[in-house]
Amino acid sequence: MSSSSTYTLYTAGTPNGWKVSILMEELGLDYKLQPVNIFKGEQKEDWFMKINPNARIPALVDHEAGNVRVFESGAIMWYLAVKHGKFFPKEAREQAETMSWLMFQMGGLGPMQGQASHFLRFAPEKGKDWIANDDYSIADMATFPWVLSSAVAGLSLEGKPNLQKWIERCLARPATSRGLDVPEPNKAKGLKNDPAAADKMFAEMNVSIK
């Protein structure tokens, strides 16, 4: 990241924010980070709503393209993946599969975290390394922060070895791990998908999730 960057990313430490920062790190993009304090309501301030009228993070400004704004996390991921020609397949059939899983995350897993337990029974194939196709894609990046944060919703991934292996494969990618630490170090990494550990973390923060 630098002071005269190609992009400005407006974000906060949430799964929707992390999935975009993961992609930007995986792409090796030059971007300026602008944290948005959602607990203080900064996303509803006039300056931010000029970038995203829906008043939600993340949002992106592409300075290289004439200060084009892009909002909604899935739209940002699609925009960047297509623009830079990575993590989005070229074949129509594989594009459809990737977009279907990306939209599943946007419309299913994200809004209703309770579906996470169902999510990892989705694939008829056993032992598949990545969600949509044979390669890591924006479908994995969009879903990963939510599954990693499942303990926050009180969900345990115990007894789901294929899911645990997928999480480890994602975490093993240096750029993905860096993306999780935007805009601050990611506490979800240390929860190990353990709801009790999440309860302890929030108790130490004096925050109730019940």
Automatic annotation (TrEMBL):
Transmembrane segments: none annotated. InterPro entries: Glutathione-S-Trfase_C-like, Glutathione-S-Trfase_C_sf, Glutathione_S-Trfase, Glutathione_S-Trfase_N, GST_C, Thioredoxin-like_sf. Pfam families: GST_C (PF00043), GST_N (PF02798). It comes from the Eukaryota. Residues 4-88 form the GST N-terminal domain. Residues 54-191 form the GST C-terminal domain. Belongs to the GST superfamily. This is Glutathione S-transferase.
